[in-house]
Design brief:
The chain is α+β, with helices and mostly antiparallel strands. The chain has a single domain (5-154), classed as 2,3-Dihydroxybiphenyl 1,2-Dioxygenase, domain 1, CATH 3.10.180. It is built from three helices and eight strands. Residues 72-78 and 146-155 have low confidence and may be disordered.
Length: 155
C-alpha cells in the first residue's frame, strides 16, 4: 500500500486572524503552534497549526497567510488548498515510484524535525513534495523514529 493515512491539510488564507477565529473559536480546534516561517520555494508566511484537543487522531490542519507572494485573482491564491499530506511506509520507494513515472518532485526526501512545529509527538520524519497533475502540491511523510511510528499505530 503506497499511503497509510492522512497526515494534514494546509490551506491558503487571506487573513490569518479571521481564519483563526473560524477554526479555533467557532470550530473548537486548538492552536499548538503559531509563528512566521520560510517555507518551500522561498516563500514567507505566517501560519497556525491546529488540532482537536484530546483527540487520538493524528490529523492536523495548517492555515497559512503568505506574506510576499504575488497573489492572483483579486488577492487570492489560485486555489485555497496549500497542500495535502499523506503518511507512507517507505518514502524513498515513493520517490522512486513518482520520478519513474515522470512526476517532478521538488527535491529528494529530506529529513525534518517536527519539534520545530511543536507537534504532539515531536520527532523526526522524512518529507517529500511533488505536484499532482493539476499542479496541487502533495506532501508525503514517513516517521524516522519509533515515536511517530507508535503514534500512527495508536490511531
Amino acid at each position: 500500500m503506497p499511503t497509510i493515512g492522512m497526515s494534514h491539510n494546509a490551506l491558503y488564507v487571506r487573513d490569518l486572524d479571521k481564519s483563526l477565529h473560524f477554526y479555533r473559536d467557532l470550530l473548537g480546534m486548538t492552536v499548538y503552534h503559531h509563528a512566521p516561517a520560510e517555507v518551500g520555494r522561498g516563500w514567507k508566511r505566517k501560519a497556525a497549526y491546529l488540532r482537536w484537543e484530546g483527540s487520538d487522531d493524528s490529523f492536523r490542519l495548517v492555515i497559512a497567510q503568505y506574506l510576499d507572494v504575488e497573489y492572483k485573482n483579486g488577492g487570492t491564491q489560485p486555489t485555497p488548498i496549500d497542500h495535502y499530506s499523506f503518511w507512507v511506509d517507505d518514502i524513498h520507494e515513493m520517490y522512486q515510484r513518482l520520478t519513474a513515472d515522470g512526476v517532478k518532485c521538488w527535491s529528494e526526501p529530506r529529513e525534518v524535525d517536527n519539534a520545530t512545529f511543536q507537534e504532539v509527538y515531536g520527532c523526526r520524519y522524512y518529507s517529500l513534495f511533488c505536484d499532482d497533475p493539476d499542479g496541487l502540491p502533495v506532501q508525503f511523510e514517513q516517521g524516522i523514529n519509533s515515536l511517530v511510528d507508535a503514534h500512527l499505530l495508536e490511531t
